[in-house]
Amino acid sequence: MTEQVLHKGSCHCQSIKFTILAARDVDLCECNCSICAMKGFLGLEIPASSLQSLAGKDNLSEYRFNTGTAKHWFCKTCGICPLYVPRSNPDGYSVNWRCLDKETFRSHRIVPADGQNWEAIHPGK
Prior knowledge:
Elements: E1 4-10, E2 17-23, E3 25-31, H1 34-39, E4 43-47, E5 51-55, E6 60-63, E7 71-75, E8 83-85, E9 92-96, E10 107-113, H2 118-121
Parallel strand pairs: 3-10
Antiparallel strand pairs: 1-2, 2-5, 4-9, 6-7, 7-8, 8-9
């Protein structure tokens, strides 16, 4: 099993702070769907149990669109999306790589995802 370590992250204004448990070498999802492309989101997908702490949750605003499955969370103060519940993993989270402290990671690989054609790739979901 891959060693799991604690990683810290936050939004820009530090109102939202969180810790996650994840490997030191990770794959990041670069989705081309309408919202991820506009946000420039590089997602580290984790199971819900890997979110170790989330401070400032009352300062998160939620945005949903299309099927309403994904829960996009934005800091009410600075507007940054540090993590969200993705449609592809509704029982987990996608954490914004750009919001994570990089000192605890060893390497990362960017993996493209075709979110523009989600319905065609995942019929019935």
